[in-house]
Amino acid sequence: MNTGDLFGAAAVPVRAEEPLAEGACLLRGFALPWQTALLEAVDDITARAPFRHLTTPGGLRMSVAMSNAGALGWISDRRGYRYTARDPDSGLPWPPLPHAFLQLAKAAAARGGFTDFTPDACLINRYRPGDRLTLHQDRDEREHIHPIVSVSLGLPAVFLFGGLQRGELALRVPLAHGDVVVWGGPARLRFHGILPLKPGAHELLGEQRINLTLRKAG
Ligand code: MD3
Ligand code: FE
Q: How far is the CA of 135 from the centre of ligand 2 (A)?
């Protein structure tokens, strides 16, 4: 039974998949079966490649703290945005993509209609209350034909989903612990961001939100 509740209170059908826009598919709670494995893996990765606040090419410190796993990791510094094979802080390769990340990304991408997605990069974002990500496009990947799979963990956030031009009005989409979104096709280059995180404490993660974005960058 997946169409509203049995007690007659819900007038709106409950669906697992919400089409957000052409090419974007929201899978509410899809990551919940993987949550323990994902959180353990994030701890392992960030023990080896600690969260850090990157600097934008304009010299601003990002409020969101970042790390990476996979053959390639996304970084920003005064020279620009790019993917690198090594963590610039340690000189070591980024930790490998955990099996759970790959499995979840492939399963979610398939649900979104992308049957042969093999990510080689995962950017890990950590938000604390007040942290935000201003509207931007993800265009540092070599090809934009591959989708991006995003996984939200911890405190809820409001996602801003804009258009193909910065000025277009942005949709506000609440994202909660366990939600997964597949962004592909015509949604892949849309502007997006995260509003300042509201204060709060999540039962597993405390005062933070972790977002994983799985990508094929190389
Ligand atoms: C839509 N992360 O890491 S995830 C990012 O919650 C990023 O940390 C946000 O934007 C976060 O680049 C949003 C959702 C997301 C990720 C990539 C997209 C939406 C996207 C790429 C294209 C279109
Ligand atoms: Fe992004």
A: 8
The environment of the single-atom ion ligand 2, i.e. residues with CB closer than 5 A, is: 138
Helix 35-48 crosses helix 99-111 at what angle (to 10 degrees)? 130
Q: Mind listing the pLDDT tens digit for each residue in 1-48?
A: 444 344 444 455 545 677 788 999 999 999 999 999 999 999 999 999
Name residue 69's beta-bridge partners: 122
Q: Is 33 helix (H, G, I), strand (E, B) or coil?
A: helix
Ligand 1 center from residue 211 Cα (angstroms):
8
Which residues in the chain come in under a pLDDT of 70?
1-16
Apex 54 CA angle, 48 and 60, nearest 5: 165
Mutate to test the pocket of ligand 1, among 148, 151, 159, 177 (most ligand atoms within 8 A of CB): 148
Helices assigned H by DSSP within 167-210: none
Domains of the chain: 17-215 (2.60.120.590)
Kindly report the CA angle at 209 between 28 and 52, in degrees rounded to 5?
Answer: 135
State how far the Cα of 207 lies from the Cα of 169, in Å rounded to an integer.
Answer: 30
Q: 76: CA distance to ligand 2 center in Å? A: 13
Residues with CB under 6 A from ligand 1: 123, 125, 133, 138, 148, 150, 159, 181, 183, 187-188, 190, 192, 194, 211, 213
Greatest CA separation found in the chain? Answer: 59
Contact 133, 75 (CB under 8 A): no
